[in-house]
Amino acid sequence: MTQNQSLVAAGPPAGARIAVDDPATGAVVGEVPDTSAEEVARAVERARRAQRGWAGLDTRVRAGFLARGRRWLLAHREEVADRIVEENGKAREDAIVEIVYCAAAFSYWAKRARGLLAPAKVRSLSPFVLGRSMYTRRVPRGVVGVIGPWNNPLLNSFGDAVPALAAGNAVVLKPSEQTPLTALLMERMARECDWPEGVFQVVTGAGATGRAVVDTVDFVMFTGSTRTGRQVAARAGERLIPCSLELGGKDALVVLADAALERAVNVTIQGALSNGGQMCTSVERVYVEAPVYDAYLTLLRERFQQVTSGRPAGLGSVDVGAVTFPPQLAVMEDHVEDAVRKGARVLAGGRASAGPGRFFEPTLLVDVDHTMKCMREETFGPTLPVMKVADAEEALRLVNDSRYGLQASIIGSDMKRARRLAERFEAGCVTINDAQTNYMALGLPMGGWKESGLGVRHGAEGFLKYTRLQAVSANRFPMRRDMHMIPYEPSAYRFLLRLVDVMYGRGLRGRAD
Ligand code: NAD
């Protein structure tokens, strides 16, 4: 083992701290503990004890706690928005969206939990189980570890804790080391709303703290890069615990020849530049059918030049804020330089802006192709490459020419044609005449295909993953013996075969078991 490996395995030394900076100014705005593996294990132990009582509460009582959390969030929305903007550097409008999402999540999961957790009857026509009463029931997994990224400090961290809690789990949340302050505010929410102690805890720290979470919890809800997602899945596999992975993307948008161009341009700009382009579901490549390419591009370029960027302050101050994670600036520069070297043209922006904060100009690239990194690798910034295609079939081939498959969008007027095309995209989510808004529909599952993830958040599937399934079968009228019991009686099997002939032999009844 090298010295480096042993340091990683040991994790942070006791009492270590992590400084948090404001990406828009570079100023240090906070400091949080770099939680050790031992402290994580203690937090999970506390959570485990608290979870038993929490799971025993009626769903209506848990809903009451979530309602208090919702009211707290709305009462403290200015403070929460300040904190998100300060540690992430995003426009205030984008921070508000996170708060609205979480208020809705509190309300939605509190209401839906009861129905989703209700036992479900199962019927069977099998002669072996005649007269049995059978049902499935849902049992919370225990302690759920939620590990989040830095691009949405509230929505992609606490937002995923809400359904886990509603399902009767305790949650230990490990926010990104870049943006841990918002999560700590939510820990304060839990205290001030008198949530049972230990039911929701935050452990701050970097990768080693995240690994310690994966090492100790019963289920991992991970949002982050594909690279880290693989490590989480590997460790979860060793421990034989389930995990849900929401990973990177290279989302495409296709503009069809019959698209309403104003809508197409507005959706493109919102999809590419909201949150400074630092969204897993950011539109990162556009394919335009040849007949409308010039008109679309003229309008897009004009609008791109009107986008404001810089240090976020109050509402209306900027459209695009700062670059949250320092190494991302180099990725953006590399993707633009690589594209230009291979023949692309920059129609707007193209550079990092001068400090003290970290900013990248909203950047529009054309004459791009799939040999360029900007068309194949996740950029995660306010850059947008646009490519002309002969027709929708070429667009479809290029959309699917990706290792990612998170989301893909189409803008077009002929809904039938757009839907047929969208359904051929290799992506977990497809949207028509929209991009990203689907995330706000909590009943609609959201998850990636290919290297964009495993499992989903939202929808019944995104909630039920936080539960284990128990199948109960009860023989209400137990007889002395069943037809299929040792010692075997040949007459019983002759009867069984006659019965099977009637049920399945002639294919007349088509009855399903
Ligand atoms: P990251 O993978 O670097 O880190 C994510 C989290 O994992 C952080 O909290 C980090 O401390 C922790 N971590 C690091 N190593 C770990 C390990 N070995 N075990 C456990 N935890 C570990 O990702 P990031 O840079 O914070 O986030 C950006 C990425 O997240 C982008 O790729 C983006 O597309 C993706 N993302 C995906 C979604 C989605 O829903 N699919 C949403 C938001 C962001």
General description of the model:
It comes from Streptomyces hyaluromycini. InterPro entries: Ald_DH/histidinol_DH (IPR016161), Ald_DH_C (IPR016163), Ald_DH_CS_GLU (IPR029510), Ald_DH_N (IPR016162), Aldehyde_DH_dom (IPR015590). Keywords: Oxidoreductase. Residues 16-472 form the Aldehyde dehydrogenase domain. The active site is at residue 246. With 513 residues, the protein is of the alpha/beta class. The protein has 3 domains: 30-247 and 459-468, Aldehyde Dehydrogenase, Chain A, domain 1 (3-Layer(aba) Sandwich); 251-441, Aldehyde Dehydrogenase, Chain A, domain 2 (3-Layer(aba) Sandwich), CATH 3.40.309.10; 482-512, no CATH class. It has 17 helices and 22 strands. It has helices spanning 3-10, 37-56, 59-75, 77-88, 92-117, 158-166, 181-192, 207-216, 226-239, 261-273, 290-306, 327-341, 373-376, 392-400, 415-422, 459-464, 490-505; strands at 17-21, 28-33, 120-122, 132-140, 143-147, 170-174, 200-202, 219-223, 243-246, 251-255, 283-289, 345-348, 352-353, 359-360, 363-366, 383-389, 404-405, 407-411, 429-432, 449-450, 453-454, 467-475. The strands form 6 sheets. It has a 7-stranded mixed sheet, sandwiched between helices. Strands 7-6-5-8-9-21 form a 6-stranded mixed sheet, sandwiched between helices. Helix 13 links the parallel strand 15 and strand 16 (383-389). Residues 1-8 have low confidence and may be disordered. It binds nicotinamide-adenine-dinucleotide (NAD). Nicotinamide-adenine-dinucleotide (NAD) binds at residues 147-151, 156, 174, 176-177, 206-207, 210-211, 214, 223-225, 228, 231-232, 246-249, 280, 325, 378, 380, 406, 448, 453.
